[in-house]
């Protein structure tokens, strides 16, 4: 076979679960960043909201499964928080830097054309 389960590293059920968890965290980063862009709309507040979201995720995890003791959980959560913050700040800053149209204001070029 050209592609086998051994060459892709998905030979055990646990490996597939790990890949699904990683995919969920990556998807969560993008969804959180878009949510920050849509709801928060200020790049200076993205870190606060992202940390708050991940704090409540931590509280719900503790209530549902107990205190997380795996290093991989802490690393994934930390990386997810950092990536979500940077993506959210990028999207918000990009929107903040857009030019604001001023209606009814004449520029100096339009006055020079009309005598």
Q: How would you sum up this structure, described in words?
A:
- The chain has 115 residues and is mainly alpha-helical.
- The chain is built from five helices and no strands.
Key terms:
115 residues; 73% helix
Summarize the structure.
By secondary structure, this protein is mainly α. It has helices at 5-8, 13-40, 46-65, 71-96, 108-113.
In percent terms, what proportion of residues is strand?
A: under 5%
How big is the Rg? Answer: 23 Å
Q: Describe the sheet with the most strands.
A: none
Q: SSE order in H/E notation?
A: HHHHH
What kind of assembly state do the chains in view correspond to? Answer: single chain
SS-derived structural category: mainly alpha
> What average pLDDT do the residues reach?
80
End-to-end separation: 80 Å
Shape designation: elongated
Number of helices: 5
Per DSSP E runs of 2 or more residues, the count of β-strands stands at: 0
Approximately how much helix is present in the residues?
over 70%
Contiguous runs where pLDDT drops below 50 for at least 5 residues? 1-11
